[in-house]
Amino acid sequence: MPAWLQTVLTSNVTWAVAALAVAYLLTLGGIPIYTWWERRGAGLIQRRPGPNRRGPYGLIQPIADAVKLAVKEDVVPEGAHGLFHALAPMLVMTVALTTFAVIPWSGNVSLFGKSFRLQVADLNFGLIYILAISSIGVYGVALAGWASNNKYSLLGGLRSAAQMISYEVAMGLAVACMFLVFQTVKLDQMIDAQVGPLWHWGVFKAPLAFLIFVAAAYAETNRVPFDLPEAESEIVAGYHTEYSSLRFGLFYMGEYVHMAITAAVTVIVFFGGWRLPWVTTVGRYGSLLPWFLFLISIVSVIVAWDTMRPARRAVTKGNILFALILAATALVSIGLGLFLLVSHVPPWAVSLSAVVSQLLVFLVKFIVLFWMFIWIRWTMPRMRYDQLMRLGWKVLLPIGLANLALTSVAVLLGWI
Amino acid sequence: MWADILFWVFAAAVIVLALAVITFKNPVNSAMALVADLFFVAALFVLVDAHFLAVIQILLYAGAVMVLFLFVIMLINQGPDELGRARRTFAKAVALILLFPLALVVLRVVENVSKGGGFLKVPSDYGTIEAVGRLVFGQYLLPFEVASVLLLAAIIGAVAIAKRRLW
After folding, report:
1. Among all residues of chain B, which has the CA nearest to that of A82?
2. Residue A132 touches chain B, beta carbons under 8 Å
């Protein structure tokens, strides 16, 4: 291997850039996919096609949506507070993006005697950082409501502020419980504590904390069944009634980024992060990569075949191109997988393969949890406001406190 | 070097924003200036390695306490008529007099630092969660518990006053 490649691979900058790239792919790069996915998921649940005209499976639709949003008129209502009206959507988006800095996308691997991990910032209060930063997001929504000079917006902003404060308490209790179980607040150490058999995952060690966390996290993302701040049947569109064009777009995108960070944190705290159950060593993860590649190729072939089925949709040039790209992906993955399987791989390549397969494991879990957001949104009815407050203060808070006490006893006695 | 530059930037921001808090006429502006101010104070905490304090500052003060402030301000939503009325020259005079002892303390600290007395020398890990936890639940356990009982009493008192009609 050439010396320059070794220098590049063992430089901290390369790893930081790679971690940033993953974070950007899952946030800004992921938003078009998420919006498309949500609409297709809605279609699936409501037994209708969803967007399916532009591009294969309607995949070009998000681009059209983005262009539509960008060229719309940017209206600032009369009597609005100019600065806060502009600042609010930016705040929502910035806060959601900033939290991704501490997510570890892979475990430690050693390359030429040095140890690396796909993580932008390794803070010694990892999960608390995420809680702290995302608690700032409420200002975006509350200020948007106040600055719009509209009664409906104000009601939405007030609802959001009250809701966030209420559910942050429950979420804090659930997270404190996980701190006790794992004896750490750092995300990478939490993943390390979930090594080994399946029942070492946080969700099996503290199932009640998981339920509280998920309920609180859904409330914090303002999604159904907790989307009272934008309940269209009561207060028009809530806090973003007076927003249009890309300012509205930032709220819209911020919601998806917020969902992404919630899904990522849930994966790490409750589902073992990038770890597979029973797989422990870096070498094992490396040797799993060919099989993951074969899986990818099988999935691509199935999707390509489905795209070209004349009975389901007209075979256009776009569909043919899409199928060809998928076929090429399948061929490349099979070739790469076979090559990795039969050839003698040097240790550095094993380390790199391990990082890639850990990332893939993380992504699969992430996709499942993200789908849960969409699934629940199109399945559950919206709560009434008093029900929401009752759930937060009279159900989740007592259960959370009892759970914390029980967990601390269990941890002290060594049961967990 | 960088820490020094950042210190002056953050310190200047803290002072400017603190002045903004008391000079803005619109209470929402003041509240948001205070939020930003708390952020820069947290940044100052980070510069002296008090990481846990910094993150708790953001989580509790900026993320929870100030949200409630903003909530109440937005709920009352006073117009310019009510806000423009108050002059309160007497209150301002009292505030200036009360400010005097605080200014003396600040001057003493500045004097001490400029003489080379400097800040306390502490190990670099004194700001971690573990170190803070050991202090709070070890050496300072009694004050910590007394403070929490006091807070509980305040909460119960607030509920009792607010919900008097329920009895």
Report:
1. B29
2. yes
